[in-house]
Design goal:
Elements (H helix, E strand, L loop, with lengths): L7 E9 L2 E8 L2 E5 L6 H11 L4 E4 L1 H15 L16 H10 L8 E2 H7 L6 H9 L12 E2 L12 H16 L2
Parallel strand pairs: 1-4, 5-6
Antiparallel strand pairs: 1-2, 2-3
Helix pairs in contact: 3-5, 4-5
Family: Belongs to the MGMT family.
Organism: Ornithinibacillus sp. 4-3
GO biological process, one term: methylation
Amino acid sequence: MKNKQNQFVYYGNINHKDWSIYIAATDKGLCFVGSQKEGINELRAWVDKNKSGATLTEDETKISPYAYQLKEYLDGKRKTFDITVDLNGTIFQETVWNELQNIPYGEIVSYSDLANKIGKPKAVRAVGAANGANPVMIVVPCHRVVAKNGNLTGFRGGLEMKKALLALEKSNEMGE
């Protein structure tokens, strides 16, 4: 097992069309997708909290396979990702994050739907908290979760980013 002191977190910035997102990966896979136009400080804070002692290193080569697929997604050319992710959370968080990956492109579910799907129908708020703690948004599509009444609520990237991602998916669904 690698000591966190010897661990590297490689990062780069995706500047594509109207998007500016920092992403990061370890040797195990993509570990962070940042908020739209939020900047490097969001990534630094996440690494300090979740990968304490890891060395943050800019390396476009290490992140290029992830950046490539994210750009394809932003272009409407990719609906699923086939990249490895390095997710570390509680068992409950990881259960929620795994279930998020089953939500099809262009579809939405409610937090209560998600709680039911993981067999914890009373854990709606906990599901919301796990959703908000998802470090790999877009790839693990937490933006596809809305309130029971259909309203857009909580998103680490902000509601404007959530709205833009849902609109991107909706417009590409109609184009088929």
